[in-house]
Amino acid sequence: MPRDTYIGFDSAWTNKPSAPGAICAVSMEGGKVAEFHEPRLATFEQALDFIDAVKSLDGATLVALDQPTIVPNLTSMRPVERVAASVISWLGGGVQPANRGKVGMFCDASPIWTFLRALDAAELPEQARIATTGLHLIEVFPALALPSFNPEFFGRLAAPRYNPARRKTFRPADWERVSNAAANEFMRFGADLAVHWCTREALRTKPVKADQDRLDAMLCLLVALRWRLMPRQKSMMLGCLDDGYMVFPASDAVRERILIAADRVGISAR
Predict the structure, then answer these.
(1) How far is the C-alpha of 150 from the C-alpha of 184, rounded, in Å?
(2) I need a surface site. Which of 94, 121, 138, 159 has the fewest CB within 10 A?
(3) d(Cα 238, Cα 168) in Å, to the nearest integer?
(4) Does position 191 have pLDDT exceeding 90, yes or no?
(5) How far apart are CA 64 and CA 30, in angstroms?
(6) E strands of the chain, at which residues?
(7) Structure confidence by residue, pLDDT tens digits, 141-177
């Protein structure tokens, strides 16, 4: 029976060995979890090695990457980020703009482009939903996923403050809530070891930034699982393959707000 693999990668956008991203994976056979690789810190190079080691040999592999992958604009932000920023700012968060002027992140010499070339994955999100073989990639944004994972995170200034690097705004209770929300989502897919990992994280009393990177990798993984294993209307693709896009889960309330913002900016949301 073919084995499909789902990978979540929070890249951290740059390639600093002292501040790597994190990566994790789940493999499924016959609709059941066959293997769980808990999140580990990883540079772009280490992520490539990880993906090569865990990717499916006879099924499909989907990598959900928390970093812009299509950045044609030289300045400002992509249209997809204008929509995301509108919603995220209402929730009480922020969106970092992506443009080719950001040295080390999206300039021609940035590690993301070397990573994408080496990965050599198909980046066709709709095709990735139904593919039975091959390596596939989607761009995801965990901050847009959280309001659909837990309705308590959807509302004016309701975004959870779970980044421990931001000491003035970090809330230990939000760390617990995000970890538990992830655990509840993994329960949908029968991923017991992933559930256990998340519930253990919920009890962490003094998380650090590396812990958040690992948790965000798990959120990316959940977006990948939802994209392929749940009905299409439970997720959205915002933007396009020419100017940039994002894939994320969408509750009815999130979908409604995204559609209004997308119409205002004039980009696709479906």
Answers:
(1) 9
(2) 94
(3) 32
(4) yes
(5) 21
(6) 3-10, 21-29, 32-42, 60-65, 134-139, 235-240, 244-249
(7) 999 999 999 999 999 999 999 999 999 999 999 999 9
Continuous H helices in 92-207 = 111-119, 125-130, 142-149, 172-188, 192-202
Give me the number of domains the chain comprises. Answer: 1
User: Is 136 part of a structural domain of the chain?
Assistant: yes
Confidence (pLDDT) at 19 = 86
* pTM score of the predicted model: 0.98
CA angle 164, 169, 170 (to 5 degrees): 30
User: Which range marks the domain in which residue 31 is found?
Assistant: 3-265
Instruction: Specify if 270 maps to a domain.
Output: no
CA distance 119 to 117: 5
Query: How do residues 91-107 score in pLDDT, each as one tens digit?
Result: 999 999 999 999 999 99
What values do phi and psi take at 69, rounded to 5?
Answer: -115, -15
Please answer whether residues 223 and 142 qualify as being in contact, where contact means their C-beta atoms are separated by less than 8 angstroms. Answer: yes
Residue 26 lies in a domain: yes
165 lies in some domain: yes
